[in-house]
């Protein structure tokens, strides 16, 4: 990453990009003002002009990664309309993002999005819009839609978390198991559609 010539030319996006570069190289422990300042070749006080400390830095990084993840999934599902194809493509895109950017994925999933937060609410809406697009052809009430979203999210994020922790030690291919899980999720959604509320 190129370093700004002067601290005065530094932008918030420069700080966030440097923080993500540190995260990719060293993990979440590198998400601190002092470490990011060293990455940029500046003194820490220059960062405080853009972000108010480590908490604000971590928040800005998480929000940026969430946006990157949403764009990643959208690119990999564009042009798909069939619900099961969308579910598979979205599930694969999430796992591919986690594999390509493991530290980003961990930082993103540890940051809680909140509907009452004006910065995170739009991200939640984008995620929900995608899930609704996947589930739109099913006849789901609002309650059933929430159940289906929770099941899909829990299954995919749970699988990825266990896989990243190195806990899938049986000899069967994790790729094959993941595909079976995605197929099973489609069956589970059909079940949710049919059960009484």
UniProtKB/TrEMBL annotation:
HTH tetR-type domain location: 9-69
Keyword annotations: DNA-binding, Transcription, Transcription regulation
Keyword Nucleotide-binding listed: no
MF-aspect GO terms: DNA binding
Pfam families: TetR_C_33
Gene3D superfamilies: Homeodomain-like, Tetracycline Repressor, domain 2
Domain of life: Bacteria
Record's keyword annotation contains Iron: no
InterPro entries, per the entry: Homeodomain-like_sf, HTH_TetR, MT1864/Rv1816-like_C, Tet_transcr_reg_TetR-rel_C_sf
Entry protein name: TetR/AcrR family transcriptional regulator
Species per Swiss-Prot/TrEMBL record: Komarekiella delphini-convector SJRDD-AB1
Upper lineage: Bacteria, Bacillati, Cyanobacteriota, Cyanophyceae, Nostocales
């Amino acid at each position: 990453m190129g370093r700004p010539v002067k601290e005065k030319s530094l932008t918030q996006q420069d700080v966030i990009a440097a923080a993500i570069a540190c995260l990719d190289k060293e993990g979440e422990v590198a998400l601190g003002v002092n470490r990011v300042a060293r990455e940029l070749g500046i003194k820490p006080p220059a960062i405080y002009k853009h972000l108010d400390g480590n908490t604000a830095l971590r928040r800005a990084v998480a929000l940026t990664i969430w946006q990157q993840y949403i764009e990643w999934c959208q690119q990999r599902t564009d042009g798909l309309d069939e619900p099961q194809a969308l579910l598979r493509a979205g599930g694969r895109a999430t796992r591919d993002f986690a594999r390509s950017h493991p530290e980003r994925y961990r930082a993103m999933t540890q940051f809680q999005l909140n509907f009452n937060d004006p910065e995170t609410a739009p991200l939640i809406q984008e995620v929900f819009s995608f899930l609704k697009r996947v589930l739109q052809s099913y006849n789901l009430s609002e309650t059933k839609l929430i159940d289906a979203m929770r099941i899909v999210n829990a299954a995919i994020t749970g699988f990825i978390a266990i896989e990243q922790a190195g806990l899938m030690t049986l000899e069967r291919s994790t790729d094959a198991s993941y595909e079976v899980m995605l197929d099973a999720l489609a069956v589970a959604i059909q079940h949710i559609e049919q059960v009484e509320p």
